[in-house]
Amino acid sequence: MNKLELILLDDDADYVQGVRDYVRARDDGGMIEIKVFSKPDAALAALRQAHDCGVLLAAERLWPHGDKGEGPVVLLLESLTDTGRLPTGVHYAFRYLPLDQLMQTVRRALTASGNNSRHAFAGKASDGRSRVITWFSAGGGSGKSTAAYNLAMRLAQQGEDVCLVSLESLPSALWMKREISPRMAEWLYYAKAKPHTAIERIGELIRPGLYRHLYYTDAFAHPDDAADMSAEDAELLLNALKKSNRFAWIIVDLEAGWSGRNRGALQGSDRIMWIVTDDAGALHKTEAMLELWRADGVIDKFAGRLSFIAGKYVGLTPTGYDRIGIDPSGVLPYVPQWKMVKHPEELLKAAFYTQTLWEAFQGIAQVPERSAATWNDPS
């Protein structure tokens, strides 16, 4: 995994130090190397040597021709009142933007350049697509919502923009605000009557979460709304979120069992994480669900994207998985204190759970540490 080389062409010592301090404070700061120059020729030479891992941030006054150079360049403008003078295709940002917003511009420039972008700062996969990770189980109480929340928070803490989506009839997701909203029902109307309008209105469902980089969509206000969502509606919802180009990751918390909306969500997913606990009831439901999938002919559609996770693992050798023919790719430990959760922060306090979840996700999705965007797409 390569570091991002942030090549800064600027002679303002205070500004340069501010950028250095910001990068040092980032969770992924160790994977970003800053090189500072005051001469355009030297900065360009460094950009050439960086190959596909460099971005040039250039003060406009030191970049008189305004051209794009030989790699991704972001011009730092003193004013945004006359951007029409810039050549087509040039990336630019107001010099005194908040630095997290400036880094988003760097990310866009890197993606647009067509570079491989195999480094910690790439917010999306190298092709610029959002990735959909869906948590599923055959029976309730497996810990889907907890796993979804913890994975989303781990990704958000690394600077990835993440959207959490609950498609449960009665959402158990503690990351959501509790007010009842009719927005999902309104969006469903457009999904059925005017799909193109539904795609355009997807932003109306998105809410800021409790933490930076974390967002969520409005849930169903009533179980009848959930029952009205077809497979096509669910797939349209995920496609609309992808097309919004706002998120590196979309994490979906499905309702346990089988339904049209579950089918559509799974069809729109890049990776399906199926949690199975080693008890008679969960194993029986999992076996029955797999038989149903085989009978419906959907098992082959999902096979290349499907991974089983052993849930509520207590350290004992599982006994039931072999019987139903599954081989879990990872485990999620049992956390007794989560029986009585009153605040969402409590779901993030068991560090060993989050680390085990991350290790399982890395192994399944082939995600390098601190670079969640470079995992291999099985399709």
Automatic annotation (TrEMBL):
InterPro entries per record: P-loop_NTPase (IPR027417), ParA/MinD_ATPase (IPR050625)
Protein origin, superkingdom: Bacteria
Gene3D superfamilies: Ntrc-like two-domain protein, P-loop containing nucleotide triphosphate hydrolases
Protein name per Swiss-Prot or TrEMBL: CpaE family protein
Species for this entry: Paenibacillus chartarius
Organism classification: Bacteria, Bacillati, Bacillota, Bacilli, Bacillales
